[in-house]
Design brief:
The two termini are 17 Å apart. The radius of gyration is 18 Å and the shape is elongated. The chain has helices spanning 6-41, 59-79, 84-97. The chain has 98 residues and is mostly helical. The chain crosses the membrane at residues 12-32, 60-78. Keywords: Membrane, Transmembrane, Transmembrane helix.
């Protein structure tokens, strides 16, 4: 993404930080709890009062959602066009220098 004005720089920075703060931890948490639940009680459906039920009806579904979030977050932060997390500081300093 080109960061040639304040709006684009703000969008790029906020999206990158939201992936770090929301996407990666949420994916890791879903992955951990779904694996824990798969090992302990198997692939029985989640009970109605759990928040995790919003992401999937069974632990296997939440496992796939969590692994997808983790893989996509790592790909975006480290590999996509040089890694958004790795190039964020450079893009901010380059924008402020121009």
């Amino acid at each position: 993404m080109e960061t040639d004005n304040w709006f684009n720089l703000t969008l790029y920075s906020l999206f990158t930080l939201s992936v770090v703060v929301i996407g990666l931890p949420l994916g890791a948490r879903l992955l951990f709890y779904s694996l824990k639940r798969l090992i302990i009680i198997g692939n029985n459906p989640h009970s109605e009062n759990l928040l995790i039920k919003k992401f999937g009806k069974t632990p296997l579904e939440t496992f796939f959602v969590g692994s997808f979030l983790v893989v996509v977050s790592i790909w975006y932060l480290l590999f996509d066009r040089g890694g958004a997390l790795l190039t964020l500081g450079f893009k901010i300093t380059q924008f402020l220098a121009s």
